[in-house]
Design brief:
mainly alpha; globular
Length: about 210
């Protein structure tokens, strides 16, 4: 993918997510709504303005998420793994087959397949790779706009790449395409457009390791 194409995709992702957030759609419906809006934005056919696209596709988003509850934790556990992977695939272009080799969803928890060395050749790289994957999957597949540090910490611990001295001060604040929100025990990591656009290359790197 050329740099111009990458910038274009990143801008489209930001535009689509902004339209969904501005529409006021309930959080549990945002992931499906995002996929529909992004598809409209990227379509070669004339598309309505982002806000109009979001409004037009909200009925489909509501139908796709009709069984989800309003509580965030309950929503995550209600979503099946195939549904989460489908939404992530639609939002990133990564095939479900490739996603299945790296990701699994167990009762609303994103878990990663493979030994820790697949995620980087140092603890720093491994922690950042794990954080990026978890955040993007939760955002696109579960409608979680950001991910608490505690959730990322648990994922890193499972891959033996949690470094208590550097996790919060060095590893997470310095990931390109991601921003830290909140303070102290309420810190969270959010994937922005550039972080989502980089997801396919990240998965490709993990699979090649």
């Amino acid at each position: 993918m050329t740099s111009d194409a990458t910038r274009g995709l990143s801008g489209s992702i930001d535009l689509a997510w902004a339209a969904v957030e501005a529409s006021g759609v309930p959080e549990q419906m945002r992931s499906a709504a995002f996929s529909e809006v992004l598809r409209s934005v990227l379509s070669p056919a004339p598309a309505p303005a982002p806000a109009q696209a979001a409004t037009a596709t909200l009925p489909d988003a509501k139908e796709a998420n009709s069984k989800a509850t309003t509580a965030a934790d309950a929503r995550a556990s209600d979503l099946s793994e195939p549904e989460v992977l489908r939404l992530v695939s639609e939002g990133t272009g990564v095939s479900i087959v490739d996603l299945e080799q790296v990701i699994m969803v167990d009762d609303g928890v994103v878990k990663l397949h493979g030994v820790h060395t697949k995620f980087g050749d140092s603890t720093t790289k491994q922690a950042r790779t794990v954080a990026q994957i978890v955040c993007v999957v939760r955002k696109l597949g579960m409608g979680a706009s950001d991910t608490p540090y505690d959730i990322i910490k648990a994922a890193c611990e499972s891959k033996h790449c949690y470094d208590s001295k550097n996790f919060a001060t060095v590893h997470l604040p310095k990931i390109s395409g991601f921003v830290v929100k909140g303070e102290k025990s309420n810190r969270r990591l959010e994937a922005k457009g550039a972080g989502i656009a980089a997801f396919p290359a990240l998965i490709e790197t993990v699979l090649a390791a």
